[in-house]
């Protein structure tokens, strides 16, 4: 049975061209995480370090973050917050790539 759990912001990111994968992950889970953890209304945060692509068209990404909120309104408040502005300012003009999408999570299976 499917149930809605969270409203998520999902970020798929690739490092700046001059950075190594290791440097990017260390920054993302370190300095950048310190700012991200402060987002108002943040209920959960999962980060996956990508170490392999299933197929060639999926190559070139370094990590995925899934930030969980109780509702779209809570995410909107976080995106309008000074804490979000600080995190965006820290990224600055890094020249990495990202895909950012939002939506309702549904737990499909748990063992």
From TrEMBL:
InterPro entries: Dimeric_a/b-barrel, EthD_dom. SUPFAM superfamilies: Dimeric alpha+beta barrel. It comes from the Bacteria. Residues 17-88 form the EthD domain. Coiled coil: none annotated. This is EthD family reductase. It comes from Streptomyces rugosispiralis.
């Amino acid at each position: 049975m499917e149930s809605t759990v969270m409203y998520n912001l999902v970020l798929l990111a690739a490092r700046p061209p001059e950075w190594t994968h290791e440097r990017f992950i260390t920054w993302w889970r370190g300095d950048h995480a310190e700012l991200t953890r402060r987002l108002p209304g943040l209920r959960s945060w999962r980060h996956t370090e990508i170490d392999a692509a299933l197929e060639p068209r999926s190559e070139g990404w370094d990590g995925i973050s899934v930030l969980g909120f109780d509702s779209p309104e809570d995410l909107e408040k976080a995106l309008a917050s000074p804490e979000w502005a600080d995190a965006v300012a820290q990224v600055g003009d890094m020249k990495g790539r990202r895909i950012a999408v939002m939506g309702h999570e549904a737990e499909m299976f748990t063992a």
